[in-house]
User: Which sequence fits this backbone?
């Protein structure tokens, strides 16, 4: 029978403890702080966002702290890129500041360890299947697969497209404006309303404007016109300022003019004429506070078209200027 001295027994126990503790420590090691980065343009648009994101995850124990997170500013949105230690990655886009942290939470949450239920009494005699080892938290097995959807966070995972998220790419706005136009010896003061749909930067909408034209000269004459236009164009965003370039056809409805004349037989004849002429409108607007619900703008527009339609030349009937240049000021209410 082999005998052990007290010092030898102590050395053997120490070796066994070291061999057991070192793997355990290796398994429990984790990253002290999540690597969260962002570009300079992101701080300019949303100051303090990176600090808020880091503070939200510094004390969390239910997320993969070894993941690398990068935030990049894109046109109208922020791209969130997550890279796990094993090389898997995914990207999401959000358009509002308050959606950044919830989106990262849904992508970084690790599934909870689920303990197997004890077998029923009737099944105690049957051999139990081998228990599967649930995924360890750093592995994040199902979180960033081919579809990027984590089944363990099915309800909270905002990476699944929802109608509310998709609608952020469609913005609706209504504007009112007043302005002056000058050209071809005439000047007008008008009031108009515009309605636009913003489809990821592409604009389509309608404009209605009422103008009171006045001839410039020693004997000025007045004339009114209602202008209806269909406009389309492109919106360019620069932080909190947006520039719109739109153009489209319009129809100008002039007022009715009447006159009387005497025929050779001595009878008095009365005639009247109205006119609807086609026009082309080109409009450029600069919007301030583009990320707000209520915003203001200044615009420059140009119009081209014939002075009056119809074959009858009514004496004294108002005529539109062949070309105009205008300046407009207005306000807009719309979705962000």
Assistant:
């Amino acid at each position: 029978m082999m005998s052990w001295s007290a010092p030898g027994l102590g050395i053997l126990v120490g070796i066994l403890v070291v061999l057991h503790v070192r793997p355990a420590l290796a398994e429990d090691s984790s990253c002290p702080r999540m690597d969260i980065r962002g570009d300079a343009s992101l701080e300019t648009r949303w100051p303090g966002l990176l600090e808020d994101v880091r503070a939200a995850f510094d004390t969390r124990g239910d997320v993969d702290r070894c993941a690398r997170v990068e935030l990049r500013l894109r046109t109208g949105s922020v791209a969130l890129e997550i890279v796990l230690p094993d090389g898997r990655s995914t990207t999401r886009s959000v358009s509002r500041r308050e959606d950044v942290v919830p989106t990262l939470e849904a992508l970084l949450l690790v599934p909870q360890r689920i303990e197997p239920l004890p077998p029923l009494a009737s099944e105690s005699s049957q051999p139990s299947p081998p228990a599967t080892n649930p995924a360890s938290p750093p592995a994040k097995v199902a979180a960033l697969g081919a579809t990027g959807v984590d089944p363990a966070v099915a309800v909270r995972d905002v990476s699944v497209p929802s109608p509310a998220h998709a609608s952020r790419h469609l913005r609706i706005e209504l504007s009112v404006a007043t302005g002056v136009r000058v050209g071809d010896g005439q000047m007008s003061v008008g009031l108009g309303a515009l309605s636009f749909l913003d489809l990821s930067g592409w604009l389509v909408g309608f404009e209605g404007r009422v103008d009171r034209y006045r001839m410039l000269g020693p004997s000025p004459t007045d004339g009114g016109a209602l202008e209806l236009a269909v406009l389309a164009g492109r919106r360019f965003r620069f932080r909190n300022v947006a520039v719109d370039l739109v153009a489209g056809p319009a129809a100008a409805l002039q007022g009715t003019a009447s006159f009387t004349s005497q025929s050779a037989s001595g009878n008095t004849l009365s005639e009247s004429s109205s006119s609807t002429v086609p026009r082309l409108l080109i409009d450029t607007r600069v919007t301030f506070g583009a990320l707000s619900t209520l915003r203001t703008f200044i615009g420059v527009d140009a119009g081209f078209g014939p002075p009056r339609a119809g074959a009858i030349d009514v004496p004294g009937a108002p005529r539109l200027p062949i070309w105009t240049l205008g300046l407009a000021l207005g306000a807009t209410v719309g979705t962000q």
Notes: Residues 6-28 form the longest helix (23 residues).
